[in-house]
Amino acid sequence: MDLRDNKSRLILIVVALGAALVIAVASCGGGGGGDEEGAASGDETTETTPGDDGESGQDEEGEAEEVQPLAEVTGQHSETLTVTRAERETGGFLTIEGTLTNGGSETLFDLFWAGSENELVENGFSMAGATVVAHEEGKRYLILRDTTGRCLCTGFGDGIEPGATVPWYAQFPAPDQGTTQVDFQVADLPPATIEIR
Fold first, then answer.
1. Residue 94: pLDDT above 90?
2. Which of 21, 70, 125, 131 shows the smallest number of beta carbons within 10 Å?
3. Helix, strand counts (H, E) of the chain
4. Beta partners for residue 168, in sequence order
């Protein structure tokens, strides 16, 4: 009886020690390794990751803006209009965005950009006179405006200085879903054929 009791006690002690050893190893490996990894990843985050992320983000954004314009046209005053986005929005709108660069030697300021409609004259130098022509539908879409005649578009204030590039947007009623290509035009610039989504 004593021998069996001693043997049982010995087995229980060995099992308990084995379990304690497994728990100790697991906690040391997970906790210590985690702390080391946390410290290492913290160091990497501080020294390497932000720079890498920032650079790659800027590269991707730069490429998206520079490499993928939908269209670009140049006017007789050396102004360059670039279209970078043309998408249908919820609610039946078409939003077109891009940049306008004054490549001339004088401030770009042209009231004719507001268009010939009396209601839009107060918009001044702006994208108010822009139009979208959907040849497939045989329709011409005018800029959207609020009840006071303010266009849903960018106004350029007192003009664009020589060499400056400014962003712009303009909103229109969305063409039919089947229409994927339209001509965008403002003032006396040539029409820009763009793909819409």
1. yes
2. 21
3. 2, 8
4. 98
